[in-house]
Specification:
Strand content: under 5%
Radius of gyration: 11 Å
Distance between the termini: 23 Å
Number of strands: 0
Oligomer: single chain
Number of helices: 0
Mean pLDDT: 79
Length: 66
């Protein structure tokens, strides 16, 4: 999924039911435009599937719960 949404103007995606554990490469998936609901901003050093989760104080991520 490298660069999948990097140049996109998309502001909302629904990932319900999506299992990110099989992703191999999410580098630049959203590039620098991504900020999770708890304020976690995208960083290239944190581009593994581990950050493809709901952003909370105890588990930083790049997604926001609806």
């Amino acid at each position: 999924m490298r660069f999948a949404f990097a140049s996109s103007a998309v502001t909302e995606l629904d990932f319900r039911g999506f299992n990110p554990s099989k992703l191999k490469d999410v580098a630049y998936l959203f590039s620098s435009s991504l900020v999770g609901g708890n304020g976690t901003a995208y960083a290239s050093s944190k581009a593994s599937y581990n950050h493809f989760r709901i952003d909370t104080a105890s588990t930083p991520g790049y997604l926001t719960a609806a």
